[in-house]
Amino acid sequence: MAERISPDSPSFKNSWFRLRKGFIPWVSFKGNPYRKAFFRRYEWVSQYSDGVRVLDVPCGMGWGTSLIKGSSELVGMDLAEDAISEAQNRYGNLARFILGSMASFPFEENSFEVVACLEGIEHVPQDVGDQFIHESHRVLSKNGLLLISSPHTKSGQHSGNEFHIYEYSTEEIRRKLEMKFNVIDFYQLPVGNLIVDYFTCSKSSSCDTENITNNQN
After folding, report:
1. Which residues contact 140 (CB under 8 A, 6 or more apart)?
2. DSSP states of 164-191 as a string?
3. In this predicted structure, what is the pLDDT of residue 1?
4. What is the pLDDT of residue 33?
5. Contact at 8 Å (CB) between 178 and 202?
6. Sheet containing strand 112-118, strands side by side
7. 21 DSSP β-pair partners
8. Which of 118, 148, 207, 211 is 20 to 30 A off residue 87, Cα-Cα?
9. Beta strands in 52-181 (DSSP E)
10. Helix crossing, 170-178 with 126-139: angle to 10°?
11. Exposed / middle / buried, residue 180 (Cβ in 10 Å: 0-12, 13-18, 19+)
12. Lowest-confidence pick of 3-12, 124-133, 156-165
């Protein structure tokens, strides 16, 4: 069973607790950093999705895909039949969900302006990651964008997440991306014991310079 992010997952819920001071109990809110980071990455994609065709892969059970706003066409793709079935049941009114592998997309060339892969590439073997980058380049339009986020630990050791097959260092994932794309923007965010790299990559060969920002908030 692959890792699934769901609004029903306890690990992605905010928490409330009562703090008694004097005779009156105060209800306090404690934000969940993983939930905050989850919403933030789909807000990031939404900055590029207005009026264009967007593919989100792997989409899991569709919660994240459903948060992408403003696209002319929104497609979520995942290898797991149960995930796609749940995505269709929950969010089929917001996006189209199909079965597909990260190694081989069931789409023709120039099918999308944006491909998003948000903390998904660490869930597949490295050769499948290479194929994913190749397939993303193939299905994107001339000036299309690949938006990809990838987590790793500060120490460089594996995080211990049993669902993460390979966690790329910043330099490793950048080298892979630059074999097919121009990296036009980059930043990092800490989440728990992880650092998450965010890369905006352009298919266009006319981009001669990189606009790289390194933000750690």
Report:
1. 110, 111, 112, 113, 114, 115, 146, 203
2. -S----HHHHHHHHHTT-EEEEEEEEEE
3. 38
4. 81
5. no
6. 96-99, 73-78, 53-56, 112-118, 140-153, 194-202, 182-191
7. 24
8. 148
9. 53-56, 73-78, 96-99, 112-118, 140-153
10. 40
11. middle
12. 3-12
Residue 158: both structure tokens together: 């594996």
Tens of pLDDT, residues 29-52: 445 788 889 999 999 999 999 999
Residue spans of the domains in the chain: they are 32-202
What are 142's two structure tokens? 């001339």
The token duo for 156 is 């460089």
pLDDT tens, residue by residue, 48-91 = 999 999 999 999 999 999 999 999 999 999 999 999 999 999 99
Does residue 89 sit in helix, strand or coil? Answer: helix
Q: 204 pLDDT exceeds 50?
A: yes
Cβ(123)–Cβ(163) below 8 Å: yes
Going by their DSSP bridges, the two strands 73-78 and 53-56 should be labelled as parallel
183 contacts: CB under 8 Å, gap ≥ 6: 174, 177, 199, 200, 201, 210, 212
Please report the pLDDT score of residue 84 as a whole number: 97
CATH superfamily membership of 32-202: Vaccinia Virus protein VP39 (3.40.50.150)
User: Which of 201, 199, 77, 203 is CA-nearest to residue 141?
Assistant: 203
User: What distance in Å separates the CA atoms of residue 202 and residue 187, rounded to the nearest whole number?
Assistant: 15
